[in-house]
Amino acid sequence: MDKDNIQENLVNKGRELISRNGAEGLTARKLSDASGYSVGTIYNQFGNMDNFILIQNYLTLDSLYNRLSGLQASGTAYQRLNLYVHEFINFVLENKNLWYLVHSFHLRNNNRHFSKVYLRRVVRITQLVESAFKTLYPEIEVPERILMLQVMWLSLFSLSSFLTTDALDKFSKINKTTLCELFLNTYLAGLKVLEKA
């Protein structure tokens, strides 16, 4: 069996483990037990588990991009942005464990420089809504508009961790989907006010 097949088999088996058992279900030993490959083979293929997780996150970000880019976004700019965010929320809720891995990887690696390959995946997701932002805020200069867009996505990214856990449910009855949509529309309305100020 060639190296590519081994890697592909391990990545697929790892994805199953994460989806079923969460991020804590992903260790070299558990992956070895589930896949039939030795721990040594896993490290020979990926170097370390962080590299393995990075590949998993590539796949998750690619899946999110494909889902959002496949939307037939029509209507006003507000409606298009709401559609993207609604679909983002659905994606996270349907892939809680995989998305948690993306989120926790960012938090754990605060001193790590993300590769251009990884950052390109993140940027192309934000670019999907760039035209709607341009329509909403045509008078705002491009660098400032891009910053506003990044703040929106970073805030939604932070809120998305709340979607992946039930830990806070006993303290609040807030609908998670409504929370993210409320944030989006409050943020957009606030930007409109600032634009006129």
Describe this protein with a few key phrases:
197 residues; mainly alpha; Arc Repressor Mutant, subunit A; Tetracycline Repressor, domain 2; 2 domains; 10 helices
Blueprint of the fold:
Layout: H1 3-21, H2 28-35, H3 39-46, H4 49-69, H5 77-94, H6 96-108, H7 116-127, H8 130-136, H9 142-163, H10 176-196
Helix pairs in contact: 1-2, 1-6, 4-6, 4-7, 5-8, 5-10, 6-9, 9-10
Protein architecture, described:
The protein has 2 domains: 1-47, Arc Repressor Mutant, subunit A, CATH 1.10.10; 54-196, Tetracycline Repressor, domain 2. The protein starts with a helix and ends with a helix. The protein is built from 10 helices and no strands. The chain has 197 residues and is mainly alpha-helical. Helices cover 76% and strands 0% of the residues.
